[in-house]
Amino acid sequence: MNTFEHGGDVVSFAKSIDCKIDEVIDLSSNINFIKPQINCDFNSLSISSYPKYEKLYEAIANNYNVKDFELELYNGGSSAIFTLFRHLNLSHCTIYSPAYLEYKKACTIYKYDYNLINRLERLDVPLEKNSLVIFVNPSTPDGTLYDIDKLLEYWDQQDATILIDESFLDFTEGTSAVKYIHRYERLYILKSMTKFYSSAGIRVGTLISNKLNIDELKKFEPMWKLSSFDSEYLQEALKDKKFKKVARAINVKNKIYLEKILQNSGLIDYLFNSSANFVLARLKNYTAKQFQEELKKYKIMIRDCSNFDFLDEKFIRVAVKSQNDLDALKKALDAISK
C-alpha cells in the first residue's frame, strides 16, 4: 500500500471489480453522508469577475466563534498544512501518531526531521525543544477525543509551535482549542469543512490563530485562491442552521448501529471507542487486504489502515454511512462469517 495513500478512491475500486461507480458502497471515506441544504443556482452565479471573500471569511469566523482577522483560508486542508510547514521554516516536527498521513508527507517535502509519539500507548513522552507539534483531535483513524489542556501547557513550556487538527470536531460535542489562541502565542488550529459539510470537492481549509500569526501568513498568500463556486457553496451550507444538530444526531445513531454490526460479526478482535464518524477495528483472522477482497464480492469498500504508523496489517477503518449502506455491510459480514 502506498505510504501516503488515503481512502475514498471509488473510481479505482469500481474499475477493479468492473462495476459502475454508483454501485460501490464506500465505507472507506470519512466524509459526512448527510449534506446541508443548499439554496443556490450555480448556473446563475457570476464568474466573469474576480471573487471577493469578505462574506465567506465572515461566515466561517461566525461558525467557529472567532474574528475574521483570526483566520486564513486555503485551497483545502492539505494546502493549509503544506503552507504552514513552509511558512514556519522550522527544523523539527513531532507527530502524535497514528495521524493524518499528509503530516509525514509535509515533513518529507519541507525536510523537517521528525519523530513519532505513539499516542495509543502514552501521551506523556518528553518533547524536543522548539518542535512543531502535530495533534489531531479527534484523532484519525481511531476517532479518540482527547482533553489536551495539560498537553498544551507542557508544549508551551517546551517552546513548541502547535498545530491542533480539528477536522472531525464538528461530529462531536467537544470543545475547540480556538479558545486558547490568545493564551498560547504559537498555537494554530486547522479546520477542514470537507468532512462535516460533505464537500470534498469544495476545497476550503481554515487556519485559525492570533492576529499577528494570521497577518504573517497572509503576507505570502495570492490575491485569489478560491473559486466563486467554493465560496458560494460554503456560505449557503453555513446558512443551514439545523444541519449541525441533525447531522450529529444521525451520525451518532448510525455509529452505534455500525459498532453493533462489527461487534456481533465474530470477525473483530478489538473495536476502538470513537467520537468521530468512523470506527477503527482490528480483525481476528483476516488481514485488511484479505478482508477487502472478501468485501469486493459485495461491492463494499473499507479503509485498509496498515499504512498508518503503529498499526499492523489487521487494522481497518469503517465509516459511518446511511442505514441502507450499513445494512448491506451487515449482510456481507453475516455471509463472510459463516
TrEMBL record:
Give the cofactors, semicolon-separated.
pyridoxal 5'-phosphate
Q: Which residues form a coiled coil?
A: none
Q: Which Pfam families match?
A: Aminotran_1_2 (PF00155)
Q: What is this protein called?
A: Aminotransferase class I/II
Domain named Aminotransferase class I/classII large: which ranges?
53-336
Q: What class of enzyme is it?
A: lyase
Q: Does the keyword ATP-binding apply?
A: no
Species = Malaciobacter molluscorum LMG 25693
* The keyword Cytoplasm is annotated on this UniProt entry: no
Q: Which UniProt keywords apply?
A: Aminotransferase, Lyase, Pyridoxal phosphate, Transferase
Q: Which InterPro entries match?
A: Aminotransferase_I/II_large, PyrdxlP-dep_Trfase, PyrdxlP-dep_Trfase_major, PyrdxlP-dep_Trfase_small
> In terms of domain of life, where is this protein from?
Bacteria
Q: What CDD domains is this protein classified in?
A: AAT_like
Matching Gene3D superfamilies, A to Z?
Aspartate Aminotransferase, domain 1 (3.90.1150.10), Type I PLP-dependent aspartate aminotransferase-like (Major domain) (3.40.640.10)
What EC number(s) does its UniProt record assign?
4.1.1.81
Provide a Gene Ontology MF annotation, just one. Answer: pyridoxal phosphate binding
- Which gene holds the coding sequence for this protein? cobD
